[in-house]
Design a protein that fits this description.
single chain; 137 residues; alpha/beta; Immunoglobulin-like; four-stranded mixed beta sheet; 9 strands; 20% helix; elongated
């Protein structure tokens, strides 16, 4: 085979393999997608919660889809994350690169409640692993 042809075949192969590799990496970095459009999406990662705060109405049934954006290779917690609100008796956990929908009824009276993840990333003392739930009248 002529050298230019071999170079063209090699370049095409490298582009295809590189494109597939980039696609796989991007898919892994995006984490799990939302499965419940009606649920409030809360994403947890070693960088914190997104969103870090939410407001709900008193007495409202609230659906939250909690997603862990970290892989099982995460050195602190193995990719597991928690959404805990002690005052409301909430202690939900999701595994690496997964999501789950949880439901609770907001308290009947207005107030502000803190949530946290105590599994990894410095635990509940780390400001980025905390959030705030506001219950409005």
């Amino acid at each position: 085979m002529p050298r230019p042809f071999r170079l063209a075949v090699f370049a095409a192969t490298a582009l295809v393999v590189g494109g597939v590799a980039v696609g796989l990496v991007v898919a892994r970095l995006q984490g799990p997608g939302a499965t419940d459009a009606a649920a409030v999406q809360v994403r947890a990662s070693m960088g914190g919660f997104d969103p870090p705060a939410m407001t709900v109405k008193a007495g409202q049934t609230v659906r939250i889809e909690l997603s862990s954006m970290d892989t099982s290779m995460h050195s602190d917690g193995g990719g597991w994350h928690q959404f805990a609100v002690d005052a409301l008796g909430i202690n939900w956990k999701v595994g690496p690169l997964s999501s789950e929908v949880f439901e609770f009824t907001a308290p009947a009276t207005a107030g502000t409640y803190s949530w946290y993840c105590d599994i990894c990333c410095g635990g509940k003392e780390n400001p980025s692993m905390q959030g705030e739930l506001t219950v409005a009248a």
